[in-house]
Design brief:
single chain, alpha/beta, Arc Repressor Mutant, subunit A, Aspartate Aminotransferase, domain 2, eight-stranded mixed sheet, two-stranded antiparallel sheet, about 40% helix, about 10% strand, globular
Length: about 350
């Protein structure tokens, strides 16, 4: 065991250590059931503090790669055989509707008001100009930079498409991947099926198990597009396990398909970092990543974005590039300022701390 911490990197040591351990667990270096080195040994051999090592193991526990056993240590619970799990019955709990946020988690109005005044002062009459078709460069750059920092997603600003909420983006995806059958989680947010059906898309509903879509359901569909909400799926509240997320990627690769990763609620987790995205785990770039600001800023902010894999960019521009952006530049400049100023991430971290305190 030898893990190297790059002290010149912008990534914190615990994130670097987490990523290296995650890679080894997924790659079988530490197989299912294996005991990981003690936190003290990990700290000594990687040159970090015990607190940093403990933080790393907490993240791996949060994301379902390992579990901590009292007085015994940490053990790997990720395994490839989870792909073939047959025992996946679930009970659907109550969940927060994706179109709403709890008042205690809303973005501070004073910060939004201050940002609006700054944009008016800095931009002046620029807020009256028509937006470029795919969105303002400032917001697309801010989103790309944020995704790199928060999710480890290598995204170019040109891959980011801005639209007025998730439902509008669903419509674009339906047109982009026209002629393919889509598979959707069952149960799922009803507007996903409604929008796709209204766009003429044939949809298969795949039953969820306790860790995500059941493996027999995935194997039995003829679909080549899989729409998933891997974190806190509505209305089930289910979060896909690490094994299941890799199963989704393998599913797409085997049938030359694509995954639509609808990540609307992933940032407001109790973890100290964002949940791993399927996009960041897909080496073949078969994932369309989709998120909105309705949860992280306010329900009235009907602004969403999707990240297209580079292999779909030319086709998107050819078939859909003529569509005008449906979000006013004023709102785009406000969101860009919230992100570049650090206020967006400070708010997310505040919500996470509050959620962690509520769990104690």
């Amino acid at each position: 065991m030898k893990y190297i911490i790059d002290k010149t990197s912008n990534k914190p040591a615990y994130i670097q250590l987490y990523e290296q351990l995650r890679r080894d667990i997924a790659g079988g270096v530490y197989p299912f059931g294996a005991k990981l080195p003690s936190k003290r040994l990990l700290a000594e051999e990687s040159g970090v503090s015990v607190v940093t090592a403990e933080h790393t193991y907490s993240l791996l526990c949060d994301e379902g790669y390992i579990e901590a056993r009292e007085r015994s240590g940490c053990f790997v619970i990720y395994r490839e055989s989870d792909f073939l799990s047959q025992s996946e019955n679930i009970t659907v709990p109550e969940a927060i509707h994706p179109g709403r946020t709890g008042g205690e988690y809303d973005f501070p109005f004073s910060v939004i008001a201050k940002t609006i005044r700054k944009v008016l002062l800095d931009r002046g009459e620029d807020i009256l100009v028509k937006s470029p078709n795919n969105g303002c460069p400032e917001l697309r750059q801010a989103i790309a930079s944020y995704l790199a920092r928060a999710n480890g997603m290598a995204v170019k600003p040109d891959q980011v498409i801005i639209g007025s909420g998730a439902e509008y983006l669903y419509t674009l995806i339906a047109q982009l991947l026209k002629g393919r059958t889509f598979a959707i989680e069952d149960p799922s947010y009803k507007k996903i099926l409604q929008v796709y059906s209204a766009s003429g898309v044939k949809c298969d509903m795949l039953k969820l198990g306790k860790n995500g879509i059941r493996s027999p359901e995935l194997a039995g569909t003829d679909a080549t597009v899989l729409h998933i909400t891997p974190f806190n799926s509505y209305p089930s509240g289910i979060t896909a396990s690490a094994s299941k997320r890799r199963e989704y990627i393998r599913w797409a690769e085997e049938r030359d398909g694509f995954i639509v990763e609808d990540n609307y609620d992933s940032e407001l987790t109790v973890s100290t970092k964002n949940e791993d995205t399927v996009y960041s785990l897909s080496p073949e770039s078969r994932v369309i990543y989709l998120n909105t600001f309705s949860h992280t800023v306010a329900p009235s902010i009907r602004v969403g974005y999707m990240v297209l894999p580079e292999r779909l960019m030319d086709e998107f521009e050819e078939r859909l590039g003529f569509y005008s952006c449906t979000v006013p530049v004023f709102e785009q400049y406000i969101l860009a300022e919230l992100m570049t100023s650090g206020n967006f991430e400070r708010h997310i971290n505040r919500v996470r701390r509050k959620k962690r305190r509520e769990r104690i």
